[in-house]
Amino acid sequence: MEQSSRRFLVLGRVGDKSLHKSWIEDQSCDRNWDLQLNAYGKDESRIQDGDLPPVIDRGTKWDSIARHFNAQPELLDRYEYVMLPDDDLLMTARDINRLFDIVVENGLTMAQPALSIESYISWPVLLRSSQFKLRYVNFVESMACCIKSSYLKKLLPMFEQHYTGWGTDMIWTMLMEDPSYQAAVIDDVVMTHTRPLYSGPLYSSYQEGVDPRNELATLTASFENMPGAMLVYGGVLANGRKVGGFEAQLRNGLQLFGMVRKSKLPLNTARMGVAMLIRMFTKAGYRPEQLRPVLGAPITNLLLGRSPAAAQGGAATSAAGIEQRQAA
């Protein structure tokens, strides 16, 4: 297969009910990204429409992604940014083009599209705020993260050892040396999350004895300076004007109140709106800082570059029976 000249890669983690065809169905769009599929489903006929050969991996999302790039390390040298979407997301080729364009234009290390009001959501802060082009945040959700390839290389050891992935999105924007203005929700690009929360097939595939909540608690307790909240600390308005934390919180908070009735989590959306209006004053000058790992915590070994064998709690990712192979 002739090597592509496209600058970006979308690696879709897909099953038999994947919606990834919506990402590529607009044949008139000149994509700036290649698609590769990393599949956990059984129907191999559904995964033959990528630009790169598909891979079959029956693991969970993050250990599978780690294996994917460890087996094909040249991908992270060939492509500047990688997007890692779940298979229950509706978006178009032009949406994804625009995401990559904005990420490059603004020199971001991590980003994600905003969520439509029709989406099943975990965090109302990620709902699209139409007044903005983008909002600077200390949190990027794992369902459709876009990561600079050079930074993704540094995260792979954590993906290998943190089996379920729960909590990684609570910390990964703040593991950078200087995380300020490096991560954003892109309101100019919108996706729809179509599957109810915690209902995907991979939730039933976690190994016996592996509790995602325990992994989350372990991970977040591994740092001295966790901010304790998902915070918006600035943004770029739709007209291009940059705003600081006070105005960003004000605009975002008021807009959330207007979305309460349509949100699938109305109470949480209202609470987030209240929290943002309070943070106008209490967090107006907030800037994310690099997380400081607690000495001896399991994640510390990975962050200090020690071998995976030295890290505690990582045995789950080497479970027997995981299949990974190039699909025919």
What are its keywords?
328 residues, alpha/beta, Spore Coat Polysaccharide Biosynthesis Protein SpsA, Chain A, twelve-stranded mixed β-sheet, 29% helix, DUF707, Nucleotide-diphossugar_trans
Q: What can you see in these coordinates?
A:
The protein has helices at 21-24, 61-71, 75-78, 93-105, 149-161, 168-171, 212-220, 245-259, 266-282, 298-303, and strands spanning 8-14, 33-39, 55-57, 81-85, 89-90, 110-115, 132-137, 144-148, 183-193, 232-237, 242-244, 324-326. Mean pLDDT is 88; it is low at 306-322. The radius of gyration is 19 Å and the shape is globular. It is of the alpha/beta class and 328 residues long. Strands 1, 2, 3, 4, 5, 6, 7, 8, 9, 10, 11 and 12 form a twelve-stranded mixed β-sheet that branches. The chain is built from ten helices and twelve strands. It holds the Pfam family DUF707.
What can be said about this structure in brief?
The protein has ten helices and twelve strands. The chain is α/β, with parallel strands linked by helices.
